[in-house]
């Protein structure tokens, strides 16, 4: 378990990992947060949670990441975690075409349950298995462009692009937040607070200690 | 000549020494090899689970003690098995006490069958549908379920030799597929594989299947897993009430930190802790669950709070969530956990009242 000094950050972003069962969500998370890959990993039952802090523009940005079970019926439990999330990694397995075909349904799930301004990144995982590839990069890229998603291909097994994927989405969220005029930002915050009950994007004010809250 | 002799002698001696050291080294090497072989053997615990050396896991003396203890209990258990009716009725107190101490491993399968009474269901269904009913179930397909079952096979007890190399994966797959055909409405739900695999450790395939059916239908587990997770949602409601009643201080601390029961409840309740604890503890919990019912999960849940409340009270949100989600990383003595769990007094009247409350709320929401 990582024992973080919890106050040691400037921004806190909540991210969710979603996608079909077995596409590698949990291993992407453990690769990013602990630099671990587990060949003997268990199926995720419900939700799991991990954090990692990175630097952007000299600021410490902390990601609170929720990893979710992939089976469809689990959305009854996991969709509660979309609320208040500012980013989502929508993951498919490049060797399993059905996991790509299901992306539309996952996007609908996000539209129904997440905040409208959530940043979504499409992630094609398992590129180490190139000989088994069934989703061409170009097909996925086109899908991401059509739906205005960020796009990257990764391998949690050999680490390719994992760090980059998380950094890119966190950067994007950070930039988006900087761009927003104050009142709009407030509005967003408010909507998050009222819908999720807890504050997720937190910018620290000098001298005002902020109580950290999780959310669901 | 006389001169040479002394020379020769030391030579011989040297040679002898050489031979000796040679032999000693060989012996040492042999010992080393034996030591290594032993270490290799000890890569697995007594149940066949791979020990993680990085985490400093090794066979413990308490494990050997447990084996000793079980051998000593064997006679009592044999007698009890042979007179099951008597112990299940007139001497149920003795039975309960002995199950709480842990069913000896060599009796586990037999005892699980007797406690769950799955033979009755098996025989009834065979009579009704034919002796090859189980095989007939396997001829049908539930395609939607199959895809997810296949993906879970090597992710269920992945550290166990059987599931690592895959010899048991086929049997596990068949049980789950048969279930998803037997009850198409509930079908397969992630989490079930842990329960089925647990049964397969101790039971023949078809017996494991019928015991699984009994768990789903008579122990109400199918309502844990069916669409919308009705029993699980109810359990979360009951757990919140119980938690508040039994330890308000820790409960409020969880609330203050926004650590909700659904964040860890799925890992705890959806597999009767089979996805949570180390295997010896999982077995002990499962023994008692089979005999005393699904409410036992609340005893275990509160035992966790009781054992770790001091640490928990010092933790903030992130640390606390990870702590309760990964409670298996804490050193837990199985006897201590079980004796704590069984000593907690929970009024089943309360649980029933909270269940009613929950359903009333659900209905009110529906009406709105």
TrEMBL record, chain A:
Transmembrane spans: none
Keyword line: GTP-binding, Lipoprotein, Membrane, Nucleotide-binding, Prenylation
Q: Where in the cell is it found?
A: Endomembrane system
Determine if Transferase is one of this entry's keywords: no
Membrane-topology descriptor: Lipid-anchor
Q: Which InterPro entries match?
A: P-loop_NTPase, Rab_GTPases_membrane_traffic, Small_GTP-bd, Small_GTPase
One GO CC term of this entry? endomembrane system
Q: Name one GO molecular function term.
A: GTPase activity
Q: Name one Pfam family in it.
A: Ras
Is this entry keyworded Membrane?
yes
Where does the record place the region Disordered? 189-216
**Stretches with biased composition (Polar residues):** 189-201
Similarity comment: family membership = Belongs to the small GTPase superfamily. Rab family.
UniProt cross-references to PANTHER family, sorted A to Z: DRAB11-RELATED
**What is this protein called in UniProt?**
Ras-related protein raba1f-like
UniProtKB/TrEMBL annotation, chain B:
Quote the PROSITE patterns the UniProt record gives.
TBC_RABGAP (PS50086)
Listed Pfam families: RabGAP-TBC
Q: Which SUPFAM superfamilies match?
A: Ypt/Rab-GAP domain of gyp1p
In its keyword annotation, does this UniProt entry include Ligase?
no
Superkingdom field: Eukaryota
- GO MF annotation list: GTPase activator activity; small GTPase binding
The record's keywords, sorted A to Z, are: Coiled coil, GTPase activation
Name all Rab-GAP TBC domain ranges.
Answer: 102-293
Region (Disordered), start-end ranges: 1-37
Q: Does the keyword Iron-sulfur apply?
A: no
Q: Which Gene3D superfamilies match?
A: putative rabgap domain of human tbc1 domain family member 14 like domains (1.10.8.270), Ypt/Rab-GAP domain of gyp1p, domain 1 (1.10.10.750), Ypt/Rab-GAP domain of gyp1p, domain 3 (1.10.472.80)
The protein depicted here goes by the name: Tbc1 domain family member whacked
Organism encoding this protein: Anaeramoeba ignava
